[in-house]
Specification:
The complex is a heterodimer of chains A (152) and B (507). Chain A is mainly α. In chain A, 68% of the residues lie in helices and 0% in strands. Chain B has a two-stranded antiparallel ribbon with strand order 1-2. Classes of the chains: A mainly alpha (152), B mainly alpha (507). Chain A binds chain B through residues 69-70, 72-74, 76-77, 80-81, 83-84, 87, 95-102, and chain B through 11, 14-15, 18, 22, 25-26, 28-30, 32-33, 70-74, 125.
Amino acid sequence: MNPHLILRVVSKLLIPMIVVFGFYVQFHGDYGPGGGFQAGVIIAVSVILYALIFGIEEAQKAVPPNVARIGAATGVLIYAGVGVATLFLPFAGEAVNFLDYDALHPDQGHHSGQHYGILLIELGVLTTVASVMLAIFYAFAGRVPDIPDEEW
Amino acid sequence: MDFLVNLLPSGLAHHAPALVIVIPLVAAAVAALMPNGRLGWIVAMVTASLVAFFSLVVLGLVLSDGLISYHMGGWEPPYGIELRVDALNAVVLALVGVMGLLCVIFALPSVGDEIEEGKQALFYSAFLVALAGLLGVTITGDAFNVFVFLEISSISTYTIIAMGAGKDRRALTASYNYLILGTIGATFFVIGVGFLYMATGSLNMADIGQILQEQGYNRVTQAAFAFIVVGLGLKAAMFPLHVWLPNAYAFAPNFVTAFLASTATKVAFYALIRFLFSVFHPDVAFVELSFTWVFAAVGVIAMMVASSQAIFQTDARRLLAYSSVAQVGYMMLGLGMGTAAGLSAGILHLINHAIMKGALFMALGAFALHFGVRQIRDLNGLGRTMPASAGAFTIAGLSLVGVPLTIGFTSKWYLITAALERGWWWAVAALIISSLMALAYVARMLSAIWMESPPEHHGAKPAARHAFYMVLVPMGILAFANLYFFFHADVLVGLAEAAANAVTGGH
């Protein structure tokens, strides 16, 4: 009989919900407390919980360390990419400054450009924060030998 | 520099201030994805070339059209973040850009030798983040933004210093030491900015300066001043706050030492000037008092104490590191005179010091690459075994002393003239004594290089070695600049004067 049966069953139930909650925090960031940073931490927590319960090898099989490294860089590229895109999307015929989201969408009445801009930026933040949290966890957890079951 | 501006499509030149920071930040992410060190270096090289190009474009624009103000995201200052470039930061920006490029050329052989293959791409990534941070501190017009960029550059600097652990494990403690002190410095700085925000309700530096002028100064702003001076002084290795520097320079990879010595402390010193002259006003009583009794006094003590410490070092890079602390003293003295002439002499020395220390550390890097040189006694006979690098080292070393025909003489000349204008005879005496001490420590290294014979290995003399072209070219450019700008002094002196006039208004 597996000694961690309850932990495993409960965490299997919880992990998908944690991820969904992470996305809720991400997309609700426009209207209330939340945003990319918090959402990134929450999503990283779901993987960290998985690693705590099922072991670091299992977690690294699910999310390899290289994915964390690539994700960290990709997030920055998404963020900066939005800024660079605004440089090349002239708004009302005129070039605008770096990170001026108005260039992203022509509808000015509803400030749609600002809306899309911040969503994309937060997506970049989410990707980088989740990946870096995970990379830090892997770096620390990878250094010590696993605790044998007898010492729980 | 108008021809550089003309190379760009008209729309892009307008965005040059933003691109200077954005390009290295994006490239850092790209470099982190590169599978090996060579590709990482190519990314760093392309980036550094673009950065050098755009920083010269910015300098050209400022010199021809005056102040540039770039509103990030289209938000008007003081509410949004403003990139604000006048002659002072345009000069420092161009210095960082050009020195960054020269150091990256030198990086390929040096980093290939010192950092393990699997970590090189990430090393270049961290370097590019540090570069972006330094450029950001220089270009931004927002006080809190200065803090953010300062931290970006510092945190990545701690990492790249610690990478020296492959050759010498003491790099780890040196980096940790710098981490603790650097964090304290950043904390002091941000506390000071917080006080300023409390007193004025603004974070835009030009705006804070104006509000302070209108509403006057009180205890809160005085406390802010003290916190900011200590915080930035720590980053700039101002004398009693320099203890992190010698070990960090001595144990970091050679490329990192060359890069940091010619950019990092310079940028912090620039930030100090910006706060003293643009945010606080040099005519205010407590600021004026600090010029004489803090900056000039500390500068003179640094020149004396750090120079005499340098004389007794055994590690070649540690010796030059102590010399750097002494040179920061020269800049502090120039700043402390509180006159436009003094400040421009200080800025001139800042530029010249970057050029000479860059060449010196690159030459030491070349020696380390071929003979594993770290100690001064390892320098024996290098004049015979590596004549070209030893020649560059000698020119830059003589420039450090201030021998005529080198730029070191030019900046000391201007410092002495400015001191005499102010009637500070003791400062002139200090400058001369400190230069003699510089002669003592440079002579120790030069005599080892040229007078001693190379060590014999099983009875055989080591064969002469040719340094890599990737090392020789940037080192040669810097050594040549040490001579060239003595004969064409008006170029750098003109830049330094424009920079000083931008903040003092010419008096």
